[in-house]
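G., the chain you wanted modeled:
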Amino acid sequence: MLIKCKECQKDVSSEAANCPHCGFPVKPQPKVEDVPIVREANSSKSGLGTFFIILGIIGIIIGFVVIQPSDVEGLQSNLIDTSHQAERTSRGFASFTGDSSSANQFHQDGVDAQSGLDSMISDRHTKAACFFIPAGILFVLGLVLRASAKPNT
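Predicted structure as tokens:
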């Protein structure tokens, strides 16, 4: 289809971008806002993000392994239970015989064992936190890097 050029008034194809006679634009030029901005994915950010996510997951797994009670804690707990039973038996015997020194010794042993167990549990939780906290930070950082590396559509 032929149209008239707005500049020179000669016939120009409607498919032409510019008038072949004077060079005046026949089709309106697209606005800058109309042109989509295409961003390519930043592969270095994406790769680093994936690496941090994997490190975070490994750290979380190690944290769960560290937080599991050890065999020593189980033995310590059994010792405390045995000590409490012996203390009750000794108190009953002491009230019968009038000798309270053995009952006091059983009580002190139970307190010492309980204190040791509490210390071991506290140390275990501290060690686990040394894995959980950095692992969580690495995991979130990896997610942020991966999200910032994706192209906007």
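Residues 91 and 98 are 9 Å apart (CA to CA).

Shout if anything looks off.
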